Amino acid sequence: MGGQEFTLDLAPWMVAAVAMIVMLGSIVQSGLGMGFGLMVAPLLALLDPALVPAPTLFLGMFTAAWGAYRDRGFIRWNEVAIGSAGRFTGVACGLLLLLIVSGEAGFSLLFGIMVLAAVALSVAGRAIPFTRASLAAMGLISGTMGTITSVGAPPLALIYHGREPAVSRASLAAFFTVGCAGSLIGLYAAGWAGMRDLVLALAMVPPMLAGLWLSRFFQLRFARWYRPWLLSIAGVAGLLLVMRGLQ
Hints:
The protein is mainly alpha-helical and about 250 residues long. The protein contains 10 helices and no strands. Helix 3 runs antiparallel to helix 8, helix 4 (about 75-100) packs parallel to helix 8 and helix 6 (about 130-150) packs antiparallel against helix 7.
């Protein structure tokens, strides 16, 4: 990940692979309204742990901020505040877990477990009653998972399922803008992220924009197989990361 104990290899093949992964992730994000982190983060972690989670969190923050600004009239700020309180607690939990793990193998194992948890939550798909307590609890889980892997959407999706789409989309965008910023602040304060993470994020912006542009040609044509394809890729990547960590 972004910590200084990991080296960063920017070989040409890796640059091309990262660009393709980010571009495809943007297409998925546009088709599903979520899924960028769930697809991109595990694959980048397989390439090199130095590529996650901070660069992906930056991209997630950028895209969420744009969505929140676009739909700002539908944001429920009271819900964002409650969820963010849980998220910030989750950031602390995530940083604590990162302090416990040892080296690249430990990080790969923890990362893989968190990704598999995110996939399991997405597959379960069972809505949780929307209350202040459940919002704070899912915010905490989102913060823990998001700080370690940059994948924090699945827990919140469980409680926003079935709510008014415009309100859900706008409020979640605002939540993830604040939440990603909180995770980044925590990672930088703990020394798990540095300037190169920002540089990497900026380098990923062009393929991300290219993917968003290309997504308009896909429209809803592949909507039926986007989700299982996305979860399958993330699940396999999570398993490979766990296996790498156990070696």
